[in-house]
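Model it.
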Amino acid sequence: MLLLWSCSHEDSEKKKAENNQEKNPLIHKRVVGRIASVSSTGSFVLIQKYGTGSLPKEAVFQSQGNEGRQASLRPSGERVRDFFAADLLSGSAKIGDAVLAYHTPKKPDPVIEDEAPEDAAEDTKVQENSENSDE
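Modeled.
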């Protein structure tokens, strides 16, 4: 009897995960709450946040529901306990839809090194070498 074992399924799953990270390695996606209420006009929603604290700063908010339903949200700043008001920018939302925050951390400003200290250090070395050669 000959038994063959293949790890191709595990390898393909690892490759998919690596490809997703390579596409957008700096974007962090997190479920932050759910849609608790939708206005009768459909122009704003109430987000019930999971956990304590406030909504993440400088994040893009989106709701996702069953049947591929999505909506872009913009928190308006009003808050009562764990409920945050948000404007519905596009799409449609229903009660119970998940609210996700996409956050891209700021890149640190590039450090510009001053070249003057390096030049000064080289000048000092040249002066020391010339003094040593005179002796």
